[in-house]
Amino acid sequence: MGMKYIICHLLLVLVAPACFLGCASAPRGKVVVDSEVEKLFSSATVIPGHNYYYYGRQQSPVAIIALQQKYQLVSRLWTSLKQPEQQLASLINNTRQQRNSMCTFSGAVIKAPDGTAAGYWYAKWHLTSVRIAEPGKIEVFPPAEPTYGPCKPEGFKQN
């Protein structure tokens, strides 16, 4: 065995666990499907004390979230609604154009790691990650889109 081989394996053994621990160290939250949240979004009800964001194009949003104002969203992927009272109804209407009988938008509660509600989620897909980066700062990742099935986004080809 060469010295390079030994050094590479030694580094792998020492560095890999540190990487996994670093990824796992941020407290994680989750989204929990809730029909009452779906009703709020479907009626374009603006919830007081929340900041609104959408992911995707305004004409075809992939997801909409409402976060409690005590949280600062850490992300460059979400677009803020500056005037949700004037913008939310139009955004919700744009989600209706994407629906089909097998794939509809639904609501969920965004739960902080301690189980409290940090906000609300409205999307076709609920596979996401929620992390509290530090107190008062939250990361909500856009939904993971399926690459197969009736809800796959246009552009994906099934084999």
Structure description:
This protein is an alpha+beta fold and 159 residues long. Strand 6 and strand 7 form a beta hairpin. The chain is globular. The protein has a nine-stranded mixed sheet. The chain has helices at 3-24, 35-42, 84-96, and strands spanning 28-33, 50-57, 60-68, 72-73, 79-80, 106-111, 117-123, 130-134, 137-140. It is built from three helices and nine strands. The protein starts with a helix and ends in a 19-residue tail after the last strand.
Instruction: Provide the succession of SSEs.
Output: HEHEEEEHEEEE
Largest sheet: 9 strands, mixed
Strand content: 25-35%
Number of strand segments: 9
Query: Structural class of the helices, strands and pairings?
Result: alpha+beta
Helix content: 25-40%
Number of helices: 3
| Unreliably modeled segments | 8-13, 18-23, 155-159
**Order of strands across the main sheet:** 4-9-8-1-6-7-3-2-5
Globally, the shape reads: globular
Mean pLDDT: 84
User: Using only CA atoms, what is the Rg?
Assistant: 19 Å
For the terminal residues, how far apart are their CA atoms?
A: 43 Å
